[in-house]
Design a protein that fits this description.
This is Peptidase A4 family. This protein has 2 helices and 21 strands. It is mainly β and about 260 residues long. About 10% of the residues have low confidence. One 2-acetamido-2-deoxy-beta-D-glucopyranose (NAG) binds next to loops.
Length: about 260
Amino acid sequence: MKLNALLTTVILAAPALAVPRGIAERMRARLSHPHQESNAGANIVSTSKNSTVEYSTNWTGAARKSAPPGANYTAVTATFNVPEPTAGPNANGMEGASAWVGIDGDTAGQAILQTGVDFTVDNGQRQYHAWYEWYPDYAHDFTMDVSAGDTIVAMVHSTSPSSGVAIVENKSNGQSATKTLNAPAPTATLVGENAEWIVEDFEQKGKLVDLVNFGTVKFTGCAAEAGGSTYGVSDATIMELVANGQTHSKVQTQGDETMIVKYI
Ligand SMILES: *[C@@H]1O[C@H](CO)[C@@H](O)[C@H](O)[C@H]1NC(C)=O
Ligand SMILES: *[C@@H]1O[C@H](CO)[C@@H](O)[C@H](O)[C@H]1NC(C)=O
Ligand SMILES: *[C@@H]1O[C@H](CO)[C@@H](O)[C@H](O)[C@H]1NC(C)=O
Ligand SMILES: CC(=O)N[C@H]1CO[C@H](CO)[C@@H](O)[C@@H]1O
């Protein structure tokens, strides 16, 4: 209900600031991937009590891995802060990560409808981009400016298996960007099996970026809608990101709507 209200408010009230794919974003060649499971974390002891924990090479956060009986996920939303990334002591080129919400891409790996914000640091220079993506297409940037400390409301909503809308709103000033998009291929349809709230190590220009120290991303108002009911993160599967044999995240849920993802 809350989710529908937000959707209606944002879609009806928002001046459409999104632009079709432009040169800048094509050059960025920025791509989010489906979740890839890692065995590397199997011996890492979880401190999360109520949730199943899984290890991923790409994702940290929470994912609902199956739709409720007789329904599919059609909308996912959350509010999160844009963190200021810190370059590692041995940074070699760009480091980055991305916070987003999405439908599918976990157990249903053929498509993801997702939207969020990238934060990168390259040679001391920080950049932030708000984007939307229907995997396996690349991410496309919204024209909206994003800065560290902004509070962003992100939402994806599927209007059919092959069409949907991505919305990013700056809660600080109420400005929002909306993009209506279609499945980039006949095989890239949504089934609504997964809903997720993720911080990701993404790929750019054909290579994975080095994961940046993103500090903390706090997701609040986490909600997914399926068949008129709302679902959150308290009983979702928690994912920790493992790279080179090391865990780089710590996820904590607080109640059904809040999740804190810390870089470690
Ligand atoms: C686990 O569930 C209990 C009861 O629902 C709740 O009080 C507690 O906060 C939860 N713990 C975590 C780590 O989410
Ligand atoms: C959920 O999605 C599946 C796969 O696309 C479809 O077969 C099913 O009819 C959908 N269920 C509902 C309730 O829409
Ligand atoms: C969000 O709003 C704040 C306050 O007006 C502003 O400083 C910031 O640049 C805005 N960011 C975006 C994404 O528009
Ligand atoms: C860090 C890492 O291993 N990332 C993986 C993300 O997923 C893609 C495919 O889905 C892999 O190619 C990457 O290696």
